[in-house]
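We now fix the convention by which a protein and its fold are recorded. The integers have meaning only within a learned vocabulary of local backbone shapes. The record below shows the convention in full.
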Amino acid sequence: MTINIDDLIREADEVEKTLTGPEKHVIDYHRKNMGLNIKHPKTGRPMTAYMVGPKMRRGNYEGMVASVPGFVPGHNSNNPMSEDQAHDYWFDEIEKGVWPIYDEKTANTRSKEVHKIMDSDTLKAMRDKRGEKKD
């Protein structure tokens, strides 16, 4: 499947207009980590957030799905956390509403939409690095 970069950028721009506060926090986290140039240890792809969706086992959101970073710079030797590790690591912030929380039916769909922004940012950065056209 070929990705049309311009279409992805346009879609990402539309999604960005609909972000909730916690979803904006996800994008801020991703953008803050873009310059680190960390690659996923198995895939070699850029890793800025590596969002995971642990099902909440306790607390105010028990039974719901959080969307939290599995990548924390300098933590876990820069290897992504499992969902269980991320649940425990981010629990207090999840409870405070810092990270997105979804019902199980919408979690994957919305996370994919938000991830378009991260993909778009990465592709734009690669374009800029190569000196190609910008939007």
